[in-house]
Amino acid sequence: MVRKLAGLVATLLATSFVIFAASYAAPGDPVTFLAGGKENLTPQYLAAVRAQYHLDDPFLVQYGRWLGDAVTGNLGRSTQYNDQVGDLLLARLPSTLGLVAYASVLFVVFGVALGVLAAVRGGRTDSAVVAGTTFATSVPPFVTATVLISLFGVQLGWFPVMGGGSLWHLTLPAVTLALGALAIISRVTRQSMVEQRELDHVSVARASGLAERLIVVRHVFRGALGPIVTMCGLVTAGMLAGTVTVETAFGLNGIGSLLVHAINTHDFPVTQAVLLLMVTCYIAVTTLVDLLQPLIDPRVRRRA
User: Fold this and answer.
1) Which of 71, 101, 124 is the last residue of a domain?
2) Are 277 and 255 contacting, i.e. CB atoms less than 8 angstroms apart?
3) Are 65 and 96 within one domain?
4) Transmembrane residues, as ranges (predicted)?
């Protein structure tokens, strides 16, 4: 446990350093953007801006100050919105979390169901599921968003296509976000169950006359649950970054669209904060899944 927590802290430190360094490696002088892009700036004004934001300090000193502030919850002030970055994140976060939660429910339920169906039925059903999931993973999210908006939003008028935070507004964005993840989960579920069906204890249960449905539920699916849960956690953790394209396509005011706008306007405090939030959430979720793995699959606990 201590070793895992130490690794978590070390990963967060390394990631925060990369994020801070990458933001200031962007083309152009940060002072120009901090000054609002004004022309004919006097040397005295530029020096005042540098002093205000401590840009004359050595890089490591700047990083240490930024990291210390971030740990205490002070993420700085947006140069574009002229507001505290923390307040911007709190205002945008519910929309993004709702989208991720909705998409997670969709890909877990339908992904696992398709994987189980393919593994149990086999034959043409298996081939159809594999072909469908292969196609789903090959379509970029922005293409999926365009098709869904055109078909279900414009032509049929079943769903709103822009903005809003209700469940109905989030349906098309959630489907777009979940489609690729659904394909991954169905593949993992199928493969895990196929491997479990070949194990000795399943053959013994089948030879003892146990009904096939009970064999699938008690032995095959239960044995395959570990890899399925692990992959569901990993995919969910990575979804926060996937909201960038989806929120932009559907005009949602979430963390993803905030990041896009911050990058385009060189709003360094917001860019750094959003990237740090995404990485922190990913590491936290993957660590939680790792800690829960022995409870889900006793074989992991025995190997440890």
Assistant:
1) 71
2) yes
3) no
4) 99-120, 167-185, 228-250, 270-292
Residue with tokens 């044995």: 223
Task: Note the pLDDT tens digit of each residue in 139-198.
Answer: 888 888 888 888 888 888 788 777 666 788 888 999 999 988 888 999 999 988 888 887
| Angle ∠(178,180,181) on CA atoms, nearest 5 | 60
User: Are 36 and 142 contained in the same domain?
Assistant: no
The pLDDT tens digits of the residues spanning 199-219 come to: 777 777 777 777 778 888 877
Q: Is residue 151 domain-shared with residue 47, that is, in the same domain?
A: no
Question: Domain with 166 in it: what CATH number?
Answer: 1.10.3720.10
Residue whose tokens read 């469908």: 132
Longest C-alpha distance within the chain, in Å? 88
Other beta carbons within 10 angstroms of residue 95's beta carbon come to: 24
Q: Residue 24 belongs to what domain range?
A: 2-71
167-197 and 141-148 helices, crossing angle to 10°: 130
Q: For all residues of the chain together, what is the average pLDDT?
A: 81
- Total structural domains in the chain? 2
* pLDDT tens string 28-63: 556 666 665 555 566 766 677 666 666 777 778 888
Report if residue 80 sits inside a domain: no
How many residues can be counted in the chain?
304
